[in-house]
């Protein structure tokens, strides 16, 4: 493009145009910038309305020329939201139908930026443009909605109600993007539904309907509106076979789930491509409230015990993902069958036991699931019993033929794994006994209260608490030393004899520990006896820990406990299970 002409177009210099000869004016269509812009494009871009009018009057051929992007001057005016230029250029009706390289008309460009005045002028001039879609399949209405300009769609619907298209890219409709925005306009959604309610059942390339998007973002009012107009849309599934209820359940939107179930009670039986119901989805999303809601609405146990393609019902998934609360909700429902096995013949208890979890919470879950016994559980219990039997006896064949019988039962050494476990237990017991012996030996020569300097006798020897200290410290020392000696003696004999006396050593070590604690409490008491407010503190603290030591196996549902106290033990454990379940 001639530099003087380009400068005149940017500055609106009409003198240059007036001084052009007819030959020079005829050459104007051949004046291009590096972007293939004509002088009319440049004048429009720089908002020189007078220059644009003059150059159109002198050379109308410039109107139909397109730049490198395929835009006419009208496209540029629409993109820049220049209503005066649009009004000037739409007088040439053929210009309205021209599209750029993206297939956009000027109406597409104006709608994309939300230029309300430009949209009104173009729609009034050519309403049919509202039904044109670009190369991406996008209509002007869709572009305006997707960009969040709510007033533009209203103008298009009002002025071209029957001609306008709602189509968007990748199978989307104008209704789909309205549900995406955080501050979405429900009135806009309502007006779109009133205009074309068939959009509710339209699916995008992922198979998602506007109802799917509404449940994805928890738009309860929109869900209610969609169901009122097209209740059958709840039964439309996406490419994964998931309904809108599946999505709402997984995301945990209880209000949306309740709205759907109020409209379509049987929708809770819908299954996706993996055979999973909305209850499965709620469990996989760890949505306790939704799980309770679906269980409350389900009239039969069929949905609760429904298995997916892998044979897993909702309880199996909860056990696999260690969702404690959901396991309790499902397992305590009388309609849930705890003995249902998946395709691998595993119950929920089998799956949960694979985690090898510890703690009171895990023990409570096992206690709840204890009613289920699958192949894995039965085989595990049988294997444990056989292992115990093989550790005690072994049947050998008589290869020498000295006996007429096929085999004899003989007592043998423990198996290698069993030996390792027992060896560790023996080492721990020996270590504890040695520590107790060391502590009590030192305490015997460090009497509480000290000694008389001249005589060497203990100052507190006449106190009752001191006598208790001496007695129990001596008991602790003797019992621990006895346990150590027992270990020492059996270490030089055969291994079986050492294991045989292990119970005796453990008993004496336990007595030594208890005696040491009593000796400590009495020794501390005799020293602070004059401080009446604190004199009993050592006994209370030591007694509290002793009580805790014996109470834990009594109350913990995950351990065997004390068989001779099974009746009160069962009662206490039941109360603890209820407390853990309902308080946490």
Automatic annotation (TrEMBL):
SMART domains, sorted: ANK (SM00248)
Principal subcellular localization: membrane
Residue windows of the ANK repeats: 206-239, 240-262, 274-306
Keyword terms: ANK repeat, Membrane, Repeat, Transmembrane, Transmembrane helix
PROSITE patterns xref list: ANK_REP_REGION, ANK_REPEAT
Transmembrane segments: 428-448, 468-489, 501-528, 534-552
UniProt entry tagged with the keyword Cell inner membrane: no
Record carries keyword NADP: no
Domain of life: Eukaryota
SUPFAM superfamilies noted in UniProt: Ankyrin repeat
Topology term for the membrane: Multi-pass membrane protein
Subcellular localization: Membrane
GO cellular component: plasma membrane
Pfam families reported for this sequence: Ank, Ank_2, PGG
Occurrences of domain PGG (ranges): 422-527
Protein name, entry field: Protein ACCELERATED CELL DEATH 6-like
Source organism of this protein record: Cucumis melo
Upper taxonomic lineage: Eukaryota, Viridiplantae, Streptophyta, Embryophyta, Tracheophyta
């Amino acid at each position: 493009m001639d530099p003087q002409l380009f400068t005149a177009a940017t500055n609106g210099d009409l003198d240059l145009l007036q001084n052009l000869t007819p030959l020079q004016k005829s050459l104007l269509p051949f004046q291009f910038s590096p972007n293939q812009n004509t002088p009319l494009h440049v004048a429009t871009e720089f908002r020189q309305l007078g220059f644009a009018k003059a150059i159109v009057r002198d050379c109308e051929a410039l109107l139909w020329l397109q730049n490198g992007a395929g835009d006419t001057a009208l496209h540029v005016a629409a993109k820049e939201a220049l209503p005066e230029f649009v009004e000037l250029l739409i007088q040439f009706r053929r210009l309205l139908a021209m599209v750029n390289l993206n297939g956009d008309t000027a109406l597409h460009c104006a709608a994309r930026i939300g230029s309300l005045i430009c949209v009104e002028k173009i729609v009034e001039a050519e309403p049919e443009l509202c039904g044109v879609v670009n190369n991406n399949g996008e209509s002007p209405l869709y572009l305006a909605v997707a960009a969040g300009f709510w007033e533009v769609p209203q103008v298009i619907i009002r002025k071209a109600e029957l001609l306008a298209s709602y189509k968007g890219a990748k199978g989307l409709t104008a209704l789909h993007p309205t549900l995406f925005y955080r501050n979405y306009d429900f009135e806009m959604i309502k007006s779109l539904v009133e205009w074309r309610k068939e959009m509710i059942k339209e699916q995008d390339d992922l198979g998602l309907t506007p109802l799917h998007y509404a449940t994805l973002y928890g738009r309860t009012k929109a869900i209610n509106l969609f169901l009122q107009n097209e209740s059958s849309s709840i039964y439309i599934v996406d490419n994964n076979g998931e309904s809108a209820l599946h999505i709402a359940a997984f995301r945990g939107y209880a209000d949306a789930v309740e709205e759907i179930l109020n409209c379509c009670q049987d929708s809770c039986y819908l299954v996706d491509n993996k055979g999973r119901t909305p209850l499965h989805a709620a469990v996989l999303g760890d949505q306790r409230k939704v799980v309770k809601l679906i269980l409350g609405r389900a009239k039969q146990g069929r949905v609760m015990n429904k298995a997916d393609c892998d044979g897993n019902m909702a309880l199996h998934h909860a056990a696999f993902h260690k969702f404690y609360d959901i396991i309790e909700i499902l397992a305590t429902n009388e309609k849930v069958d705890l003995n249902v096995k998946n395709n691998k013949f595993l119950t929920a208890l089998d799956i949960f036991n694979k985690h090898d979890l510890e703690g009171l919470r895990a023990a409570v879950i096992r206690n709840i699931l204890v009613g289920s016994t699958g192949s894995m559980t039965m085989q595990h219990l049988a294997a444990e019993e056989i292992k115990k039997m093989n550790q005690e006896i072994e049947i050998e064949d008589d290869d020498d033929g000295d006996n007429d019988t096929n085999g004899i039962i003989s007592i043998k050494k423990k198996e290698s794994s069993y030996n390792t476990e027992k060896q560790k237990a023996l080492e721990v017991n020996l270590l504890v006994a040695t520590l107790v012996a060391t502590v009590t030996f030192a305490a015997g020569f460090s009497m509480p209260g000290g000694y008389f300097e001249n005589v060497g006798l203990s100052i507190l020897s006449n106190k009752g608490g001191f006598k208790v200290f001496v007695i129990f410290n001596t008991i602790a020392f003797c019992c621990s030393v006895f346990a150590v000696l027992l270990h020492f003696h059996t270490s030089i004999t055969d291994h079986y004899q050492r294991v045989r006396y292990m119970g005796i050593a453990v008993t004496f070590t336990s007595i030594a520990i208890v005696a040491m604690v009593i000796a400590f409490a009495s020794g501390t008491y005799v020293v602070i006896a004059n401080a009446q407010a604190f004199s009993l503190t050592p006994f209370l603290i030591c007694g509290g820990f002793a009580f805790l030591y014996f109470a834990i196996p009594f109350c913990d549902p995950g351990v065997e406990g004390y068989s001779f106290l099974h009746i009160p033990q069962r009662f206490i454990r039941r109360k603890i299970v209820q407390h853990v379940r309902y308080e946490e």
